[in-house]
C-alpha cells in the first residue's frame, strides 16, 4: 500500500469454518442471547475468550444500520439480525486491525452525540458506533482499547518502512520514507512526514490517503486509523 499525504481541503465445526472463511462471506447462525445459551464458540476461535455483546447502531455518511457486535479477546464480529432466531455474520476483524477514536465529524455528516458514541474502524472502513447508554459505551471503549493494544503488542512485525508521496494543490510532489509502528495513527504518520520534509503548517492541515494496490482507488484515513 502506498500512502499519499494531501493538504486537507475541507473539514467447533462452525468455528473452524469461520477461521477458513473470508470476512466478506455471509454466514447465518441460530441466535439467542449468551446468557440464554448463544453458542459463542461459533463466532470465536478456539483460543479466544468471549467478552461482550451488544445491539448497536453503525453510522457512516448519512446511513445508519442496526447491527449486533460480539467482542472476543482476539476479534470483533459484526452481525445482522435475519429474524428473531438467527443472525447473519457480516464481518469479522482481528483486534490488531481495530482502532477507536472520537472524530465523529470525519465519518458522518449527521449530528451524533459523543456521549453514547465513538468511531470504530478497521482497514478501509470507519463507522460511528452508538450504544444504548454512556455506561455501555465506556465499557466497550475501554475493553476494545485494552484488548486491541494487547493484540498489537503480540503482533509481528511491530514496525515497517512506509513510502509517503506528498501532493499539493500546485500538482507538485515529493516523497520520503519513514518507519512506523503498528500502534501509530494517521495523525502520527502525518506529523512524522511533515517533519521529515520540513513542511510548513500544522499536521491537521494535511490528510493521509492510502492506495491499496494496482487499480484500486485511494481512500482517506482519519486520525485514529
TrEMBL record:
Residue ranges occupied by any ARHGAP20 PH domain in the UniProt entry: 50-142
SUPFAM superfamilies documented for this protein: PH domain-like
InterPro entries referenced in this protein's UniProt entry, alphabetically: ARHGAP20_PH (IPR047887), PH-like_dom_sf (IPR011993)
Source species, domain of life: Eukaryota
Pfam families associated with the record: RHG20_PH
CDD domains the UniProt entry points to: PH_RARhoGAP
PANTHER family (alphabetical): RHO-GAP DOMAIN-CONTAINING PROTEIN (PTHR23179:SF36), T-CELL ACTIVATION RHO GTPASE ACTIVATING PROTEIN-RELATED (PTHR23179)
Protein name as annotated: Rho GTPase-activating protein 20-like isoform X1
Organism, as annotated: Gekko japonicus (Schlegel's Japanese gecko)
Encoding gene (name): LOC107107587
Amino acid at each position: 500500500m502506498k500512502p499519499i499525504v494531501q493538504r486537507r481541503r475541507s473539514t467447533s465445526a462452525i468455528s473452524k469454518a469461520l477461521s477458513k472463511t473470508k470476512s466478506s462471506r455471509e454466514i447465518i447462525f441460530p441466535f439467542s442471547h449468551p446468557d440464554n445459551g448463544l453458542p459463542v464458540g461459533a463466532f470465536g476461535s478456539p483460543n479466544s475468550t468471549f467478552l461482550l455483546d451488544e445491539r448497536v447502531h453503525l453510522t457512516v455518511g448519512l446511513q445508519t444500520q442496526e447491527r449486533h457486535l460480539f467482542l472476543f479477546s482476539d476479534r470483533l464480529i459484526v452481525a445482522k439480525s435475519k429474524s428473531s432466531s438467527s443472525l447473519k455474520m457480516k464481518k469479522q476483524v482481528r483486534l490488531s486491525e481495530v482502532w477507536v477514536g472520537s472524530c465523529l465529524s470525519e465519518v458522518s455528516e449527521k449530528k451524533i452525540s459523543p456521549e453514547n458514541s465513538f468511531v470504530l474502524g478497521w482497514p478501509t472502513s470507519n463507522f460511528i458506533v452508538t450504544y444504548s447508554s454512556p455506561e455501555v459505551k465506556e465499557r466497550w471503549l475501554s475493553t476494545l482499547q485494552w484488548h486491541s493494544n494487547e493484540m498489537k503488542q503480540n503482533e509481528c512485525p511491530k514496525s515497517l518502512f512506509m513510502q509517503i508521496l506528498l501532493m499539493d494543490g500546485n500538482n507538485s510532489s515529493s516523497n520520503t520514507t519513514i518507519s512506523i509502528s503498528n500502534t501509530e495513527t494517521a495523525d502520527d504518520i502525518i506529523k512524522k512526514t511533515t517533519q521529515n520534509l520540513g513542511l510548513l503548517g500544522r499536521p491537521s492541515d494535511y490528510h493521509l490517503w492510502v492506495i491499496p494496490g494496482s487499480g484500486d482507488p485511494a481512500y482517506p484515513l482519519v486520525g485514529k486509523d
